[in-house]
C-alpha cells in the first residue's frame, strides 16, 4: 500500500518564478501594436533587425526545416546568437483562404542559452507580418532609388497593408498603386489604408500598377512558378521587393529580370531553395544583405541600377522580432505568466514533485 500523500498548503503549490514564462497572446500583441503605433513599431522593429544584420556572423545559421505537402508547408526556423536561442513555427497554405483560414500562422519562443529555460512564448502571425514588412523597408533603405515616393503593391493579401505602411514609415512613400487578380482583395487594402496619409490607386492590371512606381513589391500566394513581372515591364532605376517566392517551385519574376538585376539575398543556402535565385545557375552573382548593412559591400550604386531584394524570410529576422517583444512587454500588461515549466525545489526530485501535488 502506498503511504498517504500529505496535502500541500496553497503557497507550496504555487509555481516558482523559473516555471513562469511570459506569454503574448494575439490579443496582447494587438494591444501592444496599438500602444506603440503601427508605423512606430515597424520603424523600431526595423531597427532591431538592422542591428542583428550588423552582427550577422555571430549567429547560428541553417535553412529552415520544412515539411512540404501537396497543400502547403510547415516549417521550423531556429537560430542563436550564443546568449539567446529562438525559433518560429510557421505554416504556408495558400488554399486556406478559400476555406476561411489564414494562409500563414505562426508562434515563436525565445530561450536563455545559459539555462535552456524559455523566457518568452508569443503569437507570431501578426508579428511575422510586422517583421516581414520591417525587413522589406529596412532593405529598401539601402537599395531603393533616392527620393522614392511611390510603390506598386502587386498581390493584395494579408501582407499588403503592412508592406505599404513600412515603406511609408521608413522611406516616406506617399502613394501606393494596388493590383490583385481578385479585385475584392484590392478593395480591402484600399479600405484599410484610408486615413493613413497615402494616395491609394486601385489598378486593373499589373502593368498599370507599376506606372510611375520606384518600388515594385510582389507578394502573391499561389504555390507555383508564376510570372508576375515580365522583363519589358521593369525599367531602369527601380527597386524590386520580391517577397512572394518562399518555397521550392514558387517564383514571381521572369528569369530575364533576375538575370539583369543586382540581386541581394538574406541567407544564400535558403534563398537557392526557395527564392527567385532558384531559377538561376549556381554561379549567378548576388550580394548578401548583411554585408550591405554592415558596410562591407555596396547597396545601390547609381540611379539607373535595377535592384532586387530576393526576400524569403530568415530566422534571424524572427529572432530580432522576439527580442523586440521581450524588451517591450517588460513592465506592461501585454502578457500573461504561463505555468509552462516543471521546476521542483530539488531538481533531482521531479517524481516527488508530482506525487506531492495530489
Automatic annotation (TrEMBL):
- Which SUPFAM superfamilies does the UniProt entry name for this protein? NAD(P)-binding Rossmann-fold domains
InterPro entries of this UniProt entry?
NAD(P)-bd_dom_sf (IPR036291), ODC_Mu_crystall (IPR003462), ODC_N (IPR023401)
An example Pfam family from this entry, by short name, is OCD_Mu_crystall
Q: Which NCBIfam families match?
A: PRK07589.1
Q: Which PANTHER family match?
A: KETIMINE REDUCTASE MU-CRYSTALLIN
User: What is this protein's name?
Assistant: Ornithine cyclodeaminase
Q: Which organism is it from?
A: Marinovum algicola
Amino acid at each position: 500500500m502506498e503511504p498517504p500523500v500529505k496535502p500541500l498548503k496553497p503557497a507550496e503549490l504555487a509555481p516558482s518564478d523559473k516555471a513562469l514564462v511570459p506569454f503574448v497572446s494575439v490579443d496582447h500583441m494587438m494591444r501592444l501594436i496599438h500602444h506603440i503605433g503601427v508605423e512606430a513599431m515597424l520603424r523600431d522593429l526595423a531597427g532591431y533587425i538592422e542591428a542583428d544584420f550588423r552582427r550577422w556572423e555571430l549567429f547560428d545559421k541553417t535553412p529552415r526545416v520544412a515539411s512540404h505537402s501537396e497543400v502547403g508547408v510547415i516549417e521550423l526556423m531556429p537560430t542563436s546568437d550564443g546568449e539567446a536561442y529562438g525559433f518560429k513555427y510557421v505554416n504556408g497554405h495558400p488554399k486556406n483562404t478559400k476555406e476561411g483560414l489564414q494562409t500563414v500562422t505562426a508562434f515563436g519562443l525565445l530561450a536563455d542559452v545559459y539555462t535552456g529555460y524559455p523566457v518568452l512564448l508569443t503569437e507570431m502571425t501578426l508579428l511575422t507580418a510586422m517583421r516581414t514588412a520591417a525587413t522589406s523597408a529596412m532593405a529598401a533603405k539601402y537599395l531603393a532609388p533616392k527620393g522614392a515616393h511611390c510603390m506598386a503593391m502587386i498581390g493584395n493579401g494579408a501582407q499588403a497593408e503592412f508592406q505599404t505602411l513600412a515603406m511609408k514609415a521608413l522611406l516616406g512613400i506617399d502613394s501606393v498603386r494596388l493590383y490583385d487578380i481578385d479585385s475584392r482583395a484590392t478593395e480591402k487594402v484600399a479600405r484599410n489604408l484610408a486615413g493613413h496619409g497615402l494616395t491609394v490607386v486601385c489598378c486593373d492590371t499589373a502593368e498599370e500598377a507599376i506606372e510611375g512606381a520606384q518600388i515594385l513589391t510582389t507578394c502573391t500566394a499561389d504555390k507555383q512558378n508564376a510570372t508576375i513581372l515580365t522583363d519589358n515591364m521593369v525599367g531602369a532605376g527601380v527597386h524590386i521587393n520580391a517577397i512572394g517566392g518562399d518555397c521550392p517551385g514558387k517564383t514571381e519574376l521572369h528569369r530575364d529580370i533576375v538575370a539583369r538585376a543586382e540581386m541581394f539575398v538574406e541567407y544564400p543556402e535558403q534563398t537557392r531553395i526557395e527564392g527567385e535565385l532558384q531559377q538561376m545557375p549556381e554561379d549567378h552573382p548576388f550580394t548578401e544583405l548583411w554585408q550591405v548593412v554592415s558596410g562591407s559591400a555596396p547597396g545601390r550604386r547609381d540611379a539607373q541600377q535595377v535592384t532586387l531584394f530576393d526576400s524569403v524570410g530568415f530566422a534571424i529576422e524572427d529572432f530580432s522580432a522576439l527580442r523586440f517583444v521581450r524588451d517591450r512587454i517588460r513592465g506592461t500588461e501585454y502578457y500573461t505568466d504561463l505555468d509552462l515549466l516543471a521546476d521542483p525545489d530539488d531538481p533531482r526530485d521531479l517524481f516527488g514533485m508530482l506525487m506531492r501535488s495530489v
